Amino acid sequence: MTTTDRLDRIHRLSERARADRDDLDAILDAASVGTLATVVDGLPWAVPMLYARVGDRILLHGSTGAGALRHVAAGAPAALSVTLLDGLVLADNLYNHSANYRSAVVRGALTSVPTDESDAALIELSDALIPGRSTEVRVASRKELAATLAVELTIAPGGWTVKVRDAPPSEGAGDPDVWAGVVPLRTVTDDPIRAPWVNATTPVPESVRRLVSRE
Amino acid sequence: MTTTDRLDRIHRLSERARADRDDLDAILDAASVGTLATVVDGLPWAVPMLYARVGDRILLHGSTGAGALRHVAAGAPAALSVTLLDGLVLADNLYNHSANYRSAVVRGALTSVPTDESDAALIELSDALIPGRSTEVRVASRKELAATLAVELTIAPGGWTVKVRDAPPSEGAGDPDVWAGVVPLRTVTDDPIRAPWVNATTPVPESVRRLVSRE
């Protein structure tokens, strides 16, 4: 095996596509913001959006005032890209520096959630992002729902790609006296900040305590 | 002023576009992964990429083995979307739940960095992502550079959009006894993990110590 072969093998092993639906679901469920890409007048168009997976559906949420979202609600082909950056990978040479990450791209045609289902969609989205919150606050009014544009993307076989890197740097010279390794990255929550009009004595609700403690 | 007017005003104030170039640079420099979107055969195409801003240039880095990247290296129109999720925003009603974030989209035509400049580009990218690292390790060999595809996007006036939300939830009923507020999110580094072949006594280099302490 030549050095080149070996390097190629390491690259293939450490950074690879995954075909398991469970891997896709785990990545989608671990993040809450993705980048929605579509084509408008032949040009690429991208916007970050809050989303949640509910079974085979990915619910995305926007305001009908958000002109941009209107472009994609009419059956336009779209791609939702979700990335979790898990670490910076430092090799013993510049070429092999990399990142550990989990990423997913789901492709499909965006569809609007019908108005009479947007209430349920908003609750499903909320339950996925902040479990329990929907039972603590009033639901949306009819007027608010009318101003809500819920769109969804269906996860279809062959319609998604998962790529993961979760490994030490490529070995390079393998010198034990030259530091190489990974700097792990992680998202944490800080103490909740109450809104200005909320009393200091108002208890932090269960849903928020759960968010903060789930790290 | 009607309630609707007031809500609209609050939305406008709390979530807004910013036209200041400094805001764009700050967001681009605070992140290291973006989603590159382009159009391939009329369909949207999106992939996460490491990037760094150097002045008006955004350098993106990939392997020439990454078939996907080849599509976009030939002057194709592209959009790079970068998002930092800063917090979950919990209102007193489901409709006004939101997120605090900083986001930027840079649009333009991707160009390949000429081969004789790819060494410099790799060093610039490294210096931006991990300051000091390029002086600690050997640079890339000619063979490695040949396998590196460096592409760049130029930041042009009118070619970018910044949107930021950094505020408490919309006031809603304003009841002081109902908790509403923000759960801040933040990315932290964990202790560096040395590669398997590196001695436990090999000192962690300055560049890594700086990464870990910059939080």
Helix content of chain A: 25-40%
- Report mean pLDDT of chain A, rounded to a whole number: 86
- Rg of chain A (C-alpha, Å): 21 Å
- From the N-terminal CA to the C-terminal CA of chain A, the straight-line distance is 43 Å
The ordered H/E elements of chain A are HEHEEEHEEEHHEEEEH
Q: What does the largest sheet of chain A look like?
A: 10 strands, antiparallel
Oligomer: homodimer
Category by helix and strand content of chain A: alpha+beta
Say how many strands of chain A there are.
11
Strand content of chain A: 35-45%
Keywords (chains A, B): Oxidoreductase
Enzyme class (chains A, B): oxidoreductase
InterPro entries (chains A, B): Pyridox_Oxase-rel, Split_barrel_FMN-bd
Pfam families (chains A, B): Pyridox_ox_2
Give a quick rundown of the structure.
Chains A, B: This is Pyridoxamine 5'-phosphate oxidase family protein. The structure is a homodimer of 215-residue chains. The first copy, chain A, has 215 residues and is α+β, with helices and mostly antiparallel strands.
Give an overview in words.
Two copies of one chain form a homodimer. The first copy, chain A, is an alpha+beta fold and 215 residues long. Chain A has one domain: Pnp Oxidase, Chain A. Chain A contains six helices and eleven strands. In chain A, a hairpin with a 7-residue loop joins strand 5 and strand 6. At the A-B interface, strand 2, strand 3, strand 5, strand 6 and helix 4 of A face strand 2, strand 3, strand 5, strand 6 and helix 4 of B. Strand 11 of chain A pairs antiparallel with strand 9 (181-189) of chain B. Chains A, B: Its EC number is 1.-.-.-. Chains A, B: This is Pyridoxamine 5'-phosphate oxidase family protein. Chains A, B: GO terms for molecular function: oxidoreductase activity. Chains A, B: InterPro entries: Pyridox_Oxase-rel (IPR024747), Split_barrel_FMN-bd (IPR012349).
